Amino acid sequence: MNLFQKRTGRFLKVSAAILAMLFALSACATSAAPAAATAAATEAPAAAVTDTATTDKGEPTEITYFSSKSATDETVVSLQIVADMFNEQGGNIKFTVESAADRPSYDQKLRTMLTGGQVPDMYDLDPTPFTQELADAGLLLDMQAFLEEIGELDSYVPLSINYCRMPDGSLYTIPLEFTTEMIWYNTDMFAACGLEKPKTFDDMLNACKVLAENGYTPITIDGMDGWPLLRHLAMVPYRLAGNDFLNGLASGETHMSDSIGMQALQFMANIGQYYQQGFTSTDYATAMSLFMSGKAAMYGIGTWELNNFIDANRPADLHIDYFYMPTMDGAVTQPNEYWAFGGIGLTANPEKFDGPLKDFFTFIVKNYSSVYLARQHFAPQKVAVPEGVEFDPLFLKIKDDIDSIGSSACRPWDVVLSADVISTINDNLPGLCMGEITPEEFAKIVDDALANN
Amino acid sequence: MNIIKRLSQVSTKGLYWLLIICFLVTAAFPILWMVTAAFRPNIELSSDPFGIPSTLTLENFKTVFTDSNVLTYIKNSGIVSVVSLIAIVLLSSMVSFAISKMRFKGSKGVFRYFLVGLTIPQAVTLIPLFIMFTKLNIIDTRLSVILPLVAFQLPVSILLFVNFYRYIPDEIIEAAVIDGCGVYRVFFSIIFPLSLNTILTVLAMNFITVWNDYIFSLVFINSTALKTISIGLQDFIGPRGLTDWGATFASICLSTLPTLIIYFGLNKKMTAGLTLGAVKS
Amino acid sequence: MRILNNKKALAVFIVPALLLYTLILFVPMAQSLYYSLLDWNGIGKPTFIGLQNFIKLFHDRVFLIAARNNLLYILQVVSMQLICGFFVAVLLLYLKRGRGFIQTVYYIPSVITVIAIAQLFRSFYSIEPVGLFNKIRMLFGAEPIAFLSNFDTVLPAVAAVEGWQYIGIYMLIFYAALSSIPRDIEEAARIDGATELQLLLRIRIPQIKNVIGLSFILSFVGALRGFAAPMSLTRGGPNNQSEILATYMFKKAFTSQMLGYGSAIALIIAALSCVCVILISRYADEEERS
């Protein structure tokens, strides 16, 4: 075969391939169109389209929930169950969950969507300064008014619903959970070192010291996600001043370099040396598995992970107990005041808040908590423990704690301070914990960021 | 004398093989580890990932096939890639032909204009593009990912095509013109087939970027039905950060398979295009 | 070639690409220019503040750290890709069989999405549980290091991800170039008594100068776009030790919601990158001349 024949042969093969691709292209063009139409149609009722199982009630209303949690998260699963219940009882909706799997992606996605004027039917919001901006721009539903209208405001556990309130008291979201956070510890390791359940910060630091001397890793922590370290930072100020120090940072009345701030930083510098090695790049799963596999003595996590600690699921050789936020001399908050949240709240698009969406939302308020509690989770509303469900003793023990919880709780820093300040704090905390920068240097960096915002 | 020479030959050969094997291991081991990890249970992966695997399981693949949308994501990545690649090849080859063969005033300027794009970071264009696409109502469609991908890959593709076209002698074109070919005939019937290797190079290099796109899919696509694989991998990350590593690795293996199959075929042709004419004769 | 100078055909050939390119790359850049003069969070009303963002930038401690890190990052990525790629390509020249197999193996990492590779490396670098590199260190009796936490090692560790991932591509490019050098030139040199090393330095490298230049540009540009690996491995931490310009810009624009400031950073990145355009222009000019 001469060169020319070879070339022609190849040419034919290539053009065949290109033709094939062009056919595919035209197929794609037509199939891309309906996809665009479905995606663009956020109006209810959906016009033409696809696979909605219609009943004799007519076309179902499409309600999309843009969630910061994955579809397997317990709150989302419970919402799906509630949606099914709603349809069984005469409703006619198609409830779809779209999720951005991690919180930073969700925040960024939501921001770009809202900037572009695309408001989801239902979505998640924390009571952050960003939410305040949305409220100022008139984009949010007045949840307080709605709950009063349907008479359900008092059904909520105060700490849970108040968690969702903005600093000025306005309410734009409803809580989907009630979680508390505590520090779990390995009782075998503590016993081996002759340690008791820590009550004060000094107890905790001392326990760390003794554990380290005996060759144990005192604390395992997720250093990648920011908020676990932030929890440790928040403890001392909460004990010494309640939420006032934190609120003062936001309003400019207090500074990180104040006495309270410096004590908190000193605590971080002290406790940081007891974190596991490489903590800054340890992710959530790894941090937890270090504790669960018996390689670390203490691990702070909240009740959303309770399932891992109950007898049924816990490794047989792991013996644990927990303690709440330690206290100190001069504390103004009680030992029964610690971390308690309503979790990230649920809100709806006020522009579409009538007809099916409003009905569905009302239904959620009236039915969600029973469903959630029955699945062995702490619900945001006061509901009776359902009959016939067997609850784990650990669950019941914590439920008792919840029933005797104080009237205030520690507010998480990443909800009160602006995103840029939190970003700066998160960026620099690891260095403080590892002793690479001093508390004074850290305080200056943070105060500069606070001043800038 | 002979023995010393033999010894030095043997030791050079030994060193050579040692180096080859070292490099092979550094390239292959991570991939091998990941493939085996896809078959290991999650408990093992979280506690002792680099020990000798003790159990092998198919549970991760089961999770991927039954519990997830990974197959949809692979399909989406495929569609986006194919359409983008066709557009890239067509547009860049045509522009390059104009720049290098159709003499016109400012052809050098146009070439430089396109090269500037090589240095613009994608992240910079995100928000303006999002607002623009929202107004055009193409957000959450495949088009919103395809358009930026094509545009950003034009500079490097044009660079490759122009580099190649310079080595096509003008005589071939002149001969065709004398034979009565118009511009379009010249391009599609003569130049295009000649540049097969370069086309394959362009396809291969752009395929990697387009298939692995993360930033555009992340910002412009919301619906699960349209997500691509690089975003879809995050499905296995639970709330607050918990990751199902086994399933993640299993999906990565699945999503790499199609591209591997393509590369087995195009291996030689790809680099031939890049170096054609680049060696001084 | 006057027959090819057909205005209508010219338009058809150039305009679609030109239009798309301008709309997607340059129009947003212009808008970014506008945003960089604002103090804006994306939702509320923007405030015009002129050049204040840029002034702030030059006093911004983190920006300067990120700029320095970015240079080191690019340096490391380009070196790894080109040097290792070239070295292995040369080695492969002497291999009689199995070349195709090795080339394919080297290719695979580059087709895997970079997020996946980053996670892979995260497990390699880990200290608790013990990762691959620490296992090796311990084998040699050295103490394990927390690569991604240690202030000194984090930047090189992060840069190694992209550096490693694309070695295969450059190896293939260099190999193809090296193997297409005409045999007679090499034979002639050998007959003249050149050692393999001399052959490499005096004949092979000069012969493929253009390919080396092109590869350098491709590698540099790729490293400049580096973002996903540092972002997903360390988010620029700890304490900005692995922060590069792109991650800093992203954090300011999307996490801190300072779109004006973020746009200013983006423009600086683009401006610094423009220096490359000048270099590329010179390369294109050289091509014209030869």
Care to describe what's here?
The complex is a heterotrimer of chains A (453), B (281) and C (290). By secondary structure, chain A is α/β, with parallel strands linked by helices. Chain A is 49% helix and 11% strand. In chain A, the strands form two sheets. In chain A, strands 4, 5, 6, 7 and 8 form a five-stranded mixed beta sheet that branches. In chain A, strands 2-1-3-9 form a four-stranded mixed beta sheet, covered by helices on one side. In chain A, helix 2 (74-88) links the parallel strand 1 (61-67) and strand 2. Chain B contains 13 helices and no strands. In chain B, helix 4 (70-100) packs parallel to helix 7 (143-165) and helix 5 (107-116) crosses helix 7 (143-165). Chain B is flat. Chain C has two domains: 1-27, no CATH class; 36-289, MetI-like fold. In chain C, helix 3 runs antiparallel to helix 11 and helix 13 (245-255) runs antiparallel to helix 14 (259-289). Chain C is globular and about 75 Å long. The interface between B and C is large, with 97 and 102 residues.
Summary keywords:
heterotrimer; B: 281 residues; mainly alpha; MetI-like fold; 13 helices; 73% helix; C: 290 residues; two-stranded antiparallel sheet; 14 helices; 2 strands
Describe the secondary-structure layout.
The complex is a heterotrimer of chains A (453), B (281) and C (290).
Chain A: H1 3-40, E1 61-67, H2 74-88, E2 93-99, H3 103-115, E3 122-125, H4 129-136, H5 143-149, H6 158-163, E4 179-186, H7 187-192, H8 201-213, E5 217-220, H9 227-241, H10 244-251, H11 259-272, H12 284-292, E6 296-302, H13 306-309, E7 320-323, E8 339-341, E9 345-348, H14 355-374, H15 393-403, H16 413-416, H17 419-433, H18 439-452
Parallel strand pairs in A: 1-2, 1-3, 5-6
Antiparallel strand pairs in A: 3-9, 4-6, 4-7, 4-8
Chain B: H1 2-37, H2 42-47, H3 59-67, H4 70-100, H5 107-116, H6 126-136, H7 143-165, H8 170-178, H9 183-194, H10 196-211, H11 215-220, H12 229-232, H13 245-275
Helix pairs in contact in B: 3-13, 4-5, 4-7, 4-10, 5-7, 7-10, 10-13
Chain C: H1 7-35, E1 38-39, E2 47-48, H2 52-58, H3 61-93, H4 99-111, H5 114-125, H6 132-139, H7 154-165, H8 167-179, H9 183-191, H10 196-207, H11 209-224, H12 228-233, H13 245-255, H14 259-289
